[in-house]
Amino acid sequence: MKYVEKVVVFVLIIGCLFLTYRFVKYNYKVGINGFSKYERAEVYIQAGHEVRIKGSTGTSSVYGKEIEWTPIVADEATRILEEAGITVIRSNADRRKYCVVDLALSIHFDSCAKQCASGASIGYDDPTDKPAADEWKSYYSKFFKHRWHKDNFTKNLRYYYNYKYTITKDAELVLELGDLTYPTQAKWMKENLKNLGHVVAYFAAKRIGKEHLISKPYTT
Question: Are residues 68 and 93 in the same domain?
Fold first, then answer.
């Protein structure tokens, strides 16, 4: 084989290997257990603690249970987004599949041993998530008229276990919507669970530039 032909063959082989590498990297998570195919959508919404019957099953109070409230909010947000033509991966607490999305949101509620000592909060694992976190706090404060904690005020928020399963273009956030043990907050949230889903949906649509597809939410 002539030298030029060898060079051409070599370049073609390198090109094929590069394209194969790009294909695998784009579509699969490679780990010690092999290949896991990425799932893709515009928005990822997780209902915190959903489906768990032991271990970390969430907080509760006389007003309700977190494990029952988070699916209501997540399902309503998912319904609104999908009806607007926005693709959604709707996750429970133990789905543990790798996803590539624009925005990932995990829904939770908080509690405190000292009544009225807690409120809404937000978690994220990278400084690049902060603009989305700031926008959420500003936006949710239009509806939620109670106290806020500083960002990542607990280790569970800063090192949330599910961050590693979501690869995002915009941000991945844990949204603690309020305190279940604070009577005023809890009563308001209980009356507005589906409307909170609407709030989450509109925020998500706005972050990906599609808020024009969704009506603005309201709360009582």
Answer: yes
pTM of the complete model? 0.84
| 30 close to 45: Cβ distance less than 8 angstroms | no
Distances (CA, A) of 30 to 40, 44, 208: 16, 21, 28
Q: Which residue has the tokens 């294909």?
A: 23
10-residue averages of pLDDT along the chain (220 residues): 60 58 51 66 98 91 96 98 98 93 97 71 97 98 95 96 96 97 95 97 98 89
Total length of the chain = 220
In a domain, 178, yes or no: yes
Q: For residues 81 and 17, state if they share a domain.
A: no
Distances (CA, A) of 161 to 50, 71, 138, 147: 15, 19, 26, 25
- Which residues are within 8 A (CB) of 142 and not within 5 positions of it... i.e. 6 or more apart? none
